[in-house]
């Protein structure tokens, strides 16, 4: 039985490549590219200038399906995209520190991951289970304004009733019989205190009422104990230990006669030289294959000027355009040329210590 994890491993990975850009509409293409994928203008412009470049590597079929409408819309601005499952190790690619939101699909399993990059919400990642949670801050309701707007009559009606008056404490002495007393005249009931002073005094519970009201008996402090008599320390007597006798000297061992060294065996003859390994034959060049030449980034201004002259000579372009190409991170020099022309062009730049690489485009 094929498990779900095994099926995911067998799923093919797709790579989205920015293959080519119309140089006449480079700025407009960079703006459309940044608006479609939520990128900064400088990053979008650098990606568009570095074509061909892998924009997104290792995407699933659902992820490619999710961003296909954006690719179609951006391609109207002069950008040519290519989606492939072949190896793209020899093509430069964009290294994303965190997988961006537009790379995820629309399935339920991708909802939590895509929410990580929704910066308009509040995000919380559980430190125990690692799950991502979204929540919105609504703030506290204006309680003060609601109470101030409430009429005084409603607040008085909502106030709790006053607590009952405490009862007299009964006597715990059963032998003492109190004298009969006449019933006191009915006194008028006290007016209830306002609601603000209801919590000034705490009501007396029934258990507290049964406790005696007399004060506690004073606690007598114990008499101090007499100080112990001083104890005299024991006398210390130093005892000299006798020195141990010196150990006996070991008896001299008889010296054995040294044996004569055995004759050394003759050295074996050297092994015959191994036959030279046949050099690996280069892979035959298929008919119709073409080659592309890319140069690495040039940091020195002097080398940029030298490279610009060679680029202008090889590509037959103006010197200003050649200087602009020399300032890129990855410089596309030649595209779809024979192998001899590609190697000859790269050797000219190696002569001035500028590195590069040659890629092959195989025809189906």
If you compute it from the alpha carbons, what radius of gyration comes out, rounded to the nearest whole angstrom? 48 Å
Our count of helices gives 11
Question: Could you give the count of β-strands?
Answer: 8
**Would you identify the CATH H-level superfamily of the domain at 11-135?**
Ribosomal protein L7/L12, C-terminal domain/Adaptor protein ClpS
Question: What is CATH's topology name of the domain at 11-135?
Answer: Ribosomal Protein L30, Chain: A
CATH class of the domain at 11-135, named Alpha Beta
Distance between the termini: 37 Å
Characterize this entry briefly.
Helices cover 28% and strands 13% of the residues.
Give your account of this protein's structure:
With 364 residues, this protein is α+β, with helices and mostly antiparallel strands. Among the domains are: 11-135, Ribosomal protein L7/L12, C-terminal domain/Adaptor protein ClpS (Ribosomal Protein L30, Chain: A, 2-Layer Sandwich); 290-361, 2-Layer Sandwich (Ribosomal Protein L30, Chain: A), CATH 3.30.1390. The chain contains eleven helices and eight strands. It has a three-stranded antiparallel beta sheet, with helices on one face. The chain has a three-stranded antiparallel beta sheet with strand order 7-6-8, with helices on one face. Helix 9 (301-315) crosses helix 10 (319-326). It is flat.
């Amino acid at each position: 039985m094929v498990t779900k994890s095994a099926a995911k491993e067998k799923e093919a990975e797709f790579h989205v490549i920015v293959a080519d850009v119309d140089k006449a509409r480079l700025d407009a293409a960079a703006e459309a590219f940044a608006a479609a994928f939520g990128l900064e203008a400088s990053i979008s412009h650098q990606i568009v200038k570095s074509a061909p470049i892998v924009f997104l590597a290792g995407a699933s079929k659902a992820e490619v399906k999710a961003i296909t409408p954006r690719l179609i819309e951006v391609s109207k601005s002069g950008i040519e995209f290519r989606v492939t499952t072949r190896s793209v190790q020899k093509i430069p690619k964009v290294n994303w520190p965190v997988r961006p939101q537009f790379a995820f699909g629309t399935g339920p399993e991708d909802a939590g991951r895509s929410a990580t990059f929704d910066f308009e919400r509040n995000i919380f990642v559980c430190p125990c289970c690692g799950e991502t949670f979204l929540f919105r801050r609504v703030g506290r309701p204006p309680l003060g304004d609601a109470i101030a707007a409430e009429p005084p009559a409603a607040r008085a009606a909502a106030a709790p009733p006053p607590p009952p008056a405490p009862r007299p404490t009964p006597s715990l002495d059963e032998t003492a019989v109190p004298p009969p007393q006449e019933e006191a005249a009915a006194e008028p009931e006290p007016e209830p205190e306002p609601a603000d002073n209801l919590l000034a005094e705490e009501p007396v519970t029934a258990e507290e009422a049964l406790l005696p009201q007399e004060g506690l008996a004073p606690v007598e402090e114990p008499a101090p104990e007499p100080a112990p008599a001083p104890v005299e320390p024991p006398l210390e007597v130093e005892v000299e230990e006798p020195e141990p006798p010196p150990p006996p000297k070991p008896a001299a061992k008889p010296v054995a006669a040294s044996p004569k060294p055995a004759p050394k065996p003759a050295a074996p003859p050297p092994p015959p030289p191994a036959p030279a390994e046949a050099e690996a034959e280069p892979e035959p060049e298929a008919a119709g294959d073409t080659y592309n030449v890319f140069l690495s980034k040039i940091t020195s201004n002097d080398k940029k000027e030298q490279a610009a002259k060679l680029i202008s000579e090889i590509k037959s372009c103006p010197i200003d355009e050649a200087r602009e190409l020399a300032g890129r991170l990855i410089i596309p020099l030649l595209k779809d040329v024979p192998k001899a022309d590609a190697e000859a062009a790269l050797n000219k730049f190696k002569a001035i210590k500028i590195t590069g690489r040659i890629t092959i485009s195989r025809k189906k």
